[in-house]
Automatic annotation (TrEMBL):
Residues 8-54 form the RNA-binding protein KhpB N-terminal domain. This is Protein jag. It comes from the Bacteria. It holds the Pfam family Jag_N. InterPro entries: Jag_N_dom_sf, KhpB_N. It comes from Thermorudis sp.
Length: 102
């Protein structure tokens, strides 16, 4: 289960559940608090952990840019050209590059 406060993960062991939670959060062990909610591994069951970031997650990159001004036409044209060249170099030849304001 994912919430704004962290994740709860069920797995075959506490270690595996913590590892999966860290992967899902994109964090390291020193950045989170781990609570073992259920540890029935010794009885053939599974473990359930809640892993919560010590600091609130950063705002998504788009949230910080919402108030930003639109780039000028020259900057947009250069950016589109760079993307076109990268796509061509990667073998994508029939792509249309379009700038979108989000």
């Amino acid at each position: 289960m994912v919430s704004k406060h962290g994740v709860e993960i069920q797995a075959r062991s506490v270690e595996e559940a913590v590892r999966l939670a860290l992967e899902q959060l994109g964090m390291t062990l020193d950045q989170v608090q781990v609570e073992v909610l259920v540890d029935n591994v010794a009885y053939g069951g599974e473990a359930l952990v809640r892993v919560t970031p010590l600091r609130p997650a950063q705002e998504p990159a788009g949230a910080a840019r919402r108030g930003a001004q639109r780039v000028d036409a020259e900057t947009e044209a250069v950016a589109k050209q760079v993307v076109r060249e990268l796509l061509t170099a990667m073998g994508f030849t029939n792509c249309e590059v379009v700038a979108v304001d989000n």
